[in-house]
Every structure is written in C-alpha cells, then in structure tokens.
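Record type: monomer structure entry
Structure origin: computed from sequence
Chain ID: A
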Amino acid sequence: MEDEGKPLLGSIQAEAYYADQTDFLDPRQRRPFHVEPRNIIEHSTHEQVSAEASALNSRVHYYSRLSASSDRLLAPPDHVIPPREEIYVYSPLGTAFKVPGGEGSAKNPSIVTIFAIWNTMMGTSILSIPWGIKQSGFTLGVIILILMGLLTLYCCYRILKSTKSIPSIDTSDWEFPDVCKYYFGSFGQWSSLFFSMVSLIGAMVVYWVLMSNFLFNTGKFIYNYVHHVNISDSDFGTNGTERVICPYPDNNRSVSQHYNSDNNTDAALFDHWWNKTNTIPLYLIALLLPLLNFRSAAFFARFTFLGTISVVYLIILVTLKSFHLGFHLEFHWFDSTHFFVPEFRAWCPQLTGVLTLAFFIHNCIITLMKNNKNQENNVRDLSLAYLLVGLTYLYVGVMIFASFPSPPLPKDCIEPNFLDNFPSSDVQVFVARACLLVQMTSVYPLLGYLVRVQLMGHFFGDHYPSFFWVFTLNIVLVGAGVLMARFYPNIGSIIRYSGAICGLALVFVLPSAVHLKALRSSGKLRWPSACFHVFLIMLGVANLLAQFFM
C-alpha cells in the first residue's frame, strides 16, 4: 500500500525507465524499475510517456554510456535520476509487493515491514508443508522446519549485512548481486542471473501445474452441481460431513468415481474433455500465452492482493477442517503401521528442499529493509518476520497432518497439494481453489515479465527487443509448464528441486562465501567462523544432492 499506516499488499515490478538497463556494471543503473504515473499519457499494452519523461530517459542513457564499471564519477547524477515513488520487489514462488521509494518518501514502521516480509514469503510452498512433514515423520519434520527456519534466517542476515562490509564505497543503492560482482566479478553476476532464472521458471512451472489442478476441480464442482451428479468416494475416502479422500491410493493415478446420474454418456464425455493432465494444461495456453506478450505488467499488479487473501483464507480453512476432523495422532518412533508413519523417516531431505524455497526471500531482503523507518531494528524485525512465517508453516503443517483421519485412511495419503485430499464437491475447498486460481492467473504473467526483463535485458539491452524474441521466450516458458503438468504434475517434487537448486547459491553458498571473503579482506577471518560457513556451504550442496536420491 502507499500509506505507511496500512498493511502492504502483494504487487509486482512495473514497467520503467530502466527496463533496458539491467546490466550489473553500475549499481545506479539497477535501481528498481519505475515509471511515474503522471508521465503516462495512455494506459494500453503500449504505454506512452510524456515528452518530459522521454527526454529524462535519454539523458540517463547518455550518462550510462559515459560511465564505466570502475569509474563512478561519470555515473548519472542525482538530479537526473527520476524520483522513485514506488518500488516493486519479488520473492520466488511467493508474492511480490510494493513499497515506497525515493529519498524523501515515507518509511515503513516495523510492524508494516514484518508483515510485508511475511506476505512476500507466503507462497505456494504452504500447500506442500503437510506432505513434507509426512515424508519426514511428524517429530523429525517439526525439528527440520525449525532448524531450516533458523539457518535460512542466518543466511538472510548475512545478506542484509553484506553491503556494510565494503569499505570506502557508497553501497546505499546496492543489492546483493552488486555485492557478488564486487567480490567475484562476472561469475557473481552470471551465477545470480542463472539461479534467479531457476527460481522464476520453477515458480512458473509450479503455477501451471497448480492452475491446471484448480481449474480442473473448479470445473468439476460446477459440472456436478449443475447436473446434480453425485460422486461416491467411499472406496478411497471417509464418509460423513467432513469428507477426506485418498485420491491416488497405492500410487495409482486413476481415481474411481461412481456417478449416480441418468446420463452416464454425458459424464464420460465431460471426463474425456475435462481431464486434469491431458486437456486442462492445453486449455490454459489460450488464456495465458497472450497475456505473457503484454509489454507492461501494470494491469496484473492490481490483483496480487489476492495472494494475501488466499493465504488468510487457507489458514481459516485449515482451522475449520481440523476442528471438525479432530486429531488423529499415534506415535510410532521408528516402525510404521498401516495408518501411521514413523516419527523419523529417511525421506526428510524432501522437506528440506521444500523449506529452502518456503523461507526464501534472500534476493530482495536488502530492498525491503531499506524502507524500514528504524534501521537499527532491521535485525530484530527480520527475526520476528521469520518467526511469524515459521509459525504459519508450522501451524498449517501440523494441523493438516494431525487432523488427517487415520484410520480409516493412512497418513501416506497426504498429497503434495493438501487441497487434493478434499473432494471437488467440498464447497469451502472450492472457494479456496477458485481464489487461488484467480490469483495465480494474475501472477503468472508477472513472473513471465520478470523472466523477460532479466533475460532480454542481459542479452539484448532491451526488455522487449522484438515480438519474435518475446514470443519465442514465452513459448518456451509455456511449454515447460505444459510438459510438467502433463507428465509430472507433482508440485512437491518441483518445489523441492527448484528450492534446492536456487537455495544452493542464493541461500547457502553466496552469502557464506561473501562473508568469508569480507572477513579475509579485513583480516578478521578466524577458524570457527570459517568452519561454520564452510559447513553451511556443504549443507547446501548436500541438500541439493539428496533430492536426487529420495
């Protein structure tokens, strides 16, 4: 939100003066993308700006061509840089949000900063937390969730402090990629780009799989309601007011459904053309591919507040379902039974991969904290935000796992998307799926916009070089989503793989390596610190490698 007294809601990067200046050579050229509202003459797919704005942009380009990476004297002076009234930052697989910018803009109080971080981190990973706890075992899952929260918090703290360790240079406009380039040269620049692409494309793939899932179940609910079709899940689910199902018993991906309808032919025809993996992913192409080709993402940014509403509704839904289902826990520490999993399982790395992404905010934490009113409280506010995020994940994961009715269903039926454990006829879950579908439909083009800006900016110097290149990139992005939704629609595995890959660099390796490099440069490196941070790097490598053996 624009007022400091209001909660910050989800938003995304808007089109800007510097959309074609994403090079890391000069940190001042990498200020967040922005275009002043008063300079927009016509809101359309090809936004036009005033002559004053165009002239100002040309002057910035002129200074940019004069400056060199080692000479900041010729960098654009402050009076040439347009004032930043709004800054948009993004967290992969979560949301993004808008914060005030500019030198004289209002700062955010601590409570707003804390909830902004919480809102940014809350993404699709929350749907997989109960499944991750099931994979690890209840006790080990809770322990891993707490430890991963602490480790990712520390690495985030190291990023927050990284700009302070560089002497004799004004780093007020720097972000973490600038720090990486300072210490590691072009390797830091390109590695940050690569892993940023992994997180963004991973997010788009997960969104496509989830949108296919939500669209399928939403259409199923509407069809059954209109045609008065009754579906019996008695073979794989519970009876009663609160129904919970095991959609894929014994890893069988086909679900037996018994229609009590007079028109079985129409029902079979509907199932043929409304299939979760065969047809729905293809239907989404007609909706989303045209949206990816828009030059500006400003229109879709207006709907990202739905992310906050969806998360709050999910928490309420989990509370209500758990209250009605009750708790079903029986502790078997090492040996599993038919209905209960052991408290410690060897598949725990699957949870660590999911949590690496669930606690990921490292790529934009510096920008977030720049707008905190009391800079001396940054560490405290960051810790409180992580505590709030961890408690949210812990609440959802524990409540769903504990309330899953076992018996009659085994805990192994808990799905990577816990909403799949509720039938399509459940009205409360239908509302959740519909809200998430609308939210993801608006966020997906924004993710594609960020991929385009970063890739096209690096290779062409322009975020929209031509329709051909943009359309080709979008075909690749959509194709990746369709293939995953068609052949491997397991969001738990997609999240853990992408989380472990981007987390290896941006959570474990680069923050630790930058800290060790800074300590060595200042002559303060000691063996305890070196051993601990090398251990963190090895932990990130082990986290990635373990995903391929689970």
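Annotation 1: The mean pLDDT is 77.
Annotation 2: DSSP finds 17 helices and six strands in the chain.
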